[in-house]
């Protein structure tokens, strides 16, 4: 696993060439990356911080709801307000159950 993580870090420029944010901050040292239009997202510490999305304790619950119900909202099968309210309620219910240890 560590060899794979090292490989990803060493090859992050390929992700950047496709327009994605690279998989490793190691890339900020690469002169080729610094020339790319999206480089401001990692070169600026404030922008870099905004990319961190997985530090929310209950992110798994949110992701689960988005994956299960997000497309219904996007494709008009569920009204936006109802879909978001339903997902919010589902996440809140899971958090409450998690906190109750039941």
Give your account of this protein's structure.
- The chain is mostly helical.
- The chain has two domains: 2-50, no CATH class; 59-100.
- It is built from seven helices and no strands.
- It has helices at 2-10, 12-17, 31-34, 40-43, 45-50, 59-74, 80-100.
- Helix 6 (59-74) runs antiparallel to helix 7.
- The longest helix has 21 residues, at 80-100.
- The mean pLDDT is 87.
Shape: elongated
Topology pattern, helix = H, strand = E:
HHHHHHH
Distance between the termini: 35 Å
Strand content: under 5%
**How many β-strand runs?**
0
- Contiguous low-pLDDT stretches (5 residues minimum) are none
How many domains in all? 2
**Estimated radius of gyration:** 19 Å
Q: Could you report the average pLDDT, rounded to the nearest whole number?
A: 87
Topology overview:
Layout: H1 2-10, H2 12-17, H3 31-34, H4 40-43, H5 45-50, H6 59-74, H7 80-100
Short description:
The chain is mainly α and 102 residues long. It is built from 7 helices and no strands.
Key terms:
102 residues, mainly alpha, 2 domains, 7 helices, 0% strand
């Amino acid at each position: 696993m560590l060899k794979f993580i090292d490989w990803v870090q060493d090859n992050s420029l390929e992700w950047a060439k496709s327009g994605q944010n690279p998989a490793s901050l190691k890339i900020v040292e690469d002169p080729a990356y610094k020339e790319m239009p999206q480089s401001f997202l990692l070169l600026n510490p404030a922008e870099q911080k905004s990319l961190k999305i997985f530090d929310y304790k209950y992110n798994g619950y949110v992701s689960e709801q988005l994956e299960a119900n997000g497309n219904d909202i996007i494709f008009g099968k569920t009204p936006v307000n109802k879909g978001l309210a339903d997902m919010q309620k589902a996440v809140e219910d899971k958090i409450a159950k998690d906190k109750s240890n039941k």
